[in-house]
TrEMBL record:
<dbReference type="InterPro" id="IPR017871">
    <property type="entry name" value="ABC_transporter-like_CS"/>
</dbReference>
<dbReference type="GO" id="GO:0016887">
    <property type="term" value="F:ATP hydrolysis activity"/>
</dbReference>
<feature type="domain" description="ABC transporter">
    <location>
        <begin position="6"/>
        <end position="233"/>
    </location>
</feature>
<protein>
    <submittedName>
        <fullName>ABC-2 type transport system ATP-binding protein</fullName>
    </submittedName>
</protein>
<comment type="similarity">
    <text>Belongs to the ABC transporter superfamily.</text>
</comment>
<dbReference type="GO" id="GO:0005524">
    <property type="term" value="F:ATP binding"/>
</dbReference>
<keyword id="KW-0813">Transport</keyword>
<dbReference type="InterPro" id="IPR003439">
    <property type="entry name" value="ABC_transporter-like_ATP-bd"/>
</dbReference>
<dbReference type="InterPro" id="IPR027417">
    <property type="entry name" value="P-loop_NTPase"/>
</dbReference>
<dbReference type="Pfam" id="PF00005">
    <property type="entry name" value="ABC_tran"/>
</dbReference>
<keyword id="KW-0547">Nucleotide-binding</keyword>
<keyword id="KW-0067">ATP-binding</keyword>
<dbReference type="InterPro" id="IPR003593">
    <property type="entry name" value="AAA+_ATPase"/>
</dbReference>
Amino acid sequence: MSDLIIETRGLNYYFGTQKVVDDLSLKVKKGSIYGFLGPNGAGKTTSIKILLNLLKSPKDTVFLFGKEINSNRIASLKRLGALVEQPAIYAHMTGRENLVNRCMLLNIDKAKSTDLLELVGLSDAANKKAGKYSLGMKQRLGIALALLSDPELLLLDEPTNGLDPNGIIEIRNLMIDLASKHGKTILVSSHLLSEIERIASHVGIINKGKLLFQGTINELHDLSKPTLEIEVQNAAQAASLLTENGYELIATTENKISLLFKSAEENGKINTLLVQNGFIVTSIYQIRKDLEHLFLDITKNN
Ligand SMILES: Nc1ncnc2c1ncn2[C@@H]1O[C@H](COP(=O)(O)OP(=O)(O)OP(=O)(O)O)[C@@H](O)[C@H]1O
C-alpha cells in the first residue's frame, strides 16, 4: 500500500485561459510536515483549494488517502481539516462558544472543545470574545476548529501570515507538536523559506503553477553545493596555473578565484600549488549558498 496521503498526478488548473497549476505532481507522505513553498501568486492557495475539492480537479489527477477525490469526496473530506485564508470564526462568540457551536454542528461531544483549547494554548482566553483575539489567537482558534473532527491530515494555507514573531513561534511549535505527538500529516504553505525550513520534513517549491523541486529538506540542502573561494594576488595568473593543473574554475575576479569545493585535502593541495609557484594567498575559505539564495535561484530561473 502506498504511504502517500496526498498525491496529484500531472494536475492542471485554469482560471479562464490562465494556467494557474501546471502539471503538478505532489507527493505527501504520511506523518510528514510538507512545506509548500512559493512566491506570491505561485498557485499555492489554488492547489490547496483543489485538494479540498472547493475547486474541481480533472478526473484521476487528485488522490487523497489513496482514493480519487471526486469519487470519494465526503469520505476524504471527513479525514482532513483545513485553514485557508481567514478562519471562519464568529467574532461575537467566545473561543469556547465557537468550538462548542461547531461540535454541535458536527455532532461531536462538546467536551472535545476543552481539549482543543488546551492543545492550541487558548485555555486562558477561552471565555474571551473571539473578535477581541489577536491575529495569532484567531489562527490558533482556526486550527482548533480544523482539528475538531480529529483529522489525519491538515492543510494550512500561510498560517503564520501577518503574525508577530511570538505568534509565528506559537503556530510553528503547534504544527511540530501536531505532527510529532499527535501523528498528523500536515501540508503547510508559505512564501518564506525560513518559515518552512524550521519545521518541514519535506519541501515542494512551486512557481507559476509548476513544481520546481520536491524532496526532503536534506535533499534541498544538498542542492546548495559549496564553493572554495581563494583570495590571491595576481588572480588571473593564479587562475591560469590552476587551469593548467586541471582545476575547473567557476569565476575569477581581480583578486579572487572561485571553484567547486571538493575536500579539505584538495584545498591544501591547491594552496600548496599556489604558494610553491610564488603566489601570495591571503585567504582561502569555503562558502555554502544558504537556502534562501537557493530558493531565490530556483524560483528566479523559472
Ligand atoms: N478566483 C480567481 N479567479 C481568477 N484568477 C485567480 C483566482 N484566484 C487566484 N487567481 C490567480 O491565480 C494565480 C495563483 O494564485 P494563488 O492564490 O493560488 O497563488 P498563491 O501561491 O496562493 O499566492 P499568495 O501567496 O499570493 O496567496 C494568481 O495569478 C492569481 O491572480
